[in-house]
Amino acid sequence: MAKVYVSAVIDAPIEEAWAVLRDFNALPRYHRFFARSEIEDGLPSDRIGCVRNFHTHDGGHIRERLLTLSDREHRCCYEIIEATLPVRNYVAEMTLKPITESGRTFGEWWAEYDVAEADAAEVHRTVTDTFRFAFEGAEDVVHGRAVRR
């Protein structure tokens, strides 16, 4: 099983960073990889079990199910149920913690998944970039900057 872990310091208070990242349907708002997203069956984007169906700018497609979402813990967990990304058994979790001395936020995002050895390096890089760009994009949104594309 492959594992990816990314951490970052987000130059924004935790509540502002969380307001961006907790929205399970907002990827195109803050992430440079994603072109469009919708929650299937008209469910709210914070309902456990909802499925987001989204597309990348380069034609990739992913469906993910929200497994947990905690506003108290600033944490969410989800799984890929279908993807053009060659992974199986993919589960990811993101959590935020306040950095009390500076008013900034510490973010962690990690995933575990199965991947064929031939695809492992490329998938690892893609997942790492996905998490890193999400943190950067959330900070851009909080500060009113255009998300880097």
Give the tally of β-strands.
7
Give me the secondary-structure category.
alpha+beta
CATH uppermost class: Alpha Beta
Number of H/I helices: 3
Would you tell me the overall average pLDDT? 95
How helical, in percent, are the residues? Answer: 25-40%
Order of secondary-structure elements: EHHEEEEEEH
Major sheet characteristics:
7 strands, antiparallel
Which architecture would the CATH scheme give at its second level?
2-Layer Sandwich
Protein name: Polyketide cyclase
Organism: Salinarimonas ramus
Pfam family, one: Polyketide_cyc2
Topology:
Elements: E1 2-10, H1 14-21, H2 27-30, E2 34-39, E3 51-56, E4 61-70, E5 75-83, E6 88-99, E7 104-114, H3 117-142
Antiparallel strand pairs: 1-7, 2-3, 3-4, 4-5, 5-6, 6-7
Overview of the molecule:
- It comes from Salinarimonas ramus.
- Pfam families: Polyketide_cyc2.
- This is Polyketide cyclase.
- This protein is an alpha+beta fold.
- It has one domain (about 1-140): Alpha-D-Glucose-1,6-Bisphosphate, Chain A, domain 4 (2-Layer Sandwich), CATH 3.30.530.
- About 25% of the residues lie in helices and about 40% in strands.
- The chain has 3 helices and 7 strands; from the N terminus they run βααββββββα.
- The chain has helices at about 15-20, 25-30, 115-140; strands at about 1-10, 35-40, 50-55, 60-70, 75-85, 90-100, 105-115.
- A 7-stranded antiparallel β-sheet has the order 1-7-6-5-4-3-2.
- A hairpin with a 4-residue loop joins strand 4 and strand 5 (about 75-85).
- Helix 1 crosses helix 3.
- It is globular, with a radius of gyration of 15 Å.
- The N and C termini lie far apart (about 30 Å).
- The model has no long low-confidence stretch (mean pLDDT about 95).
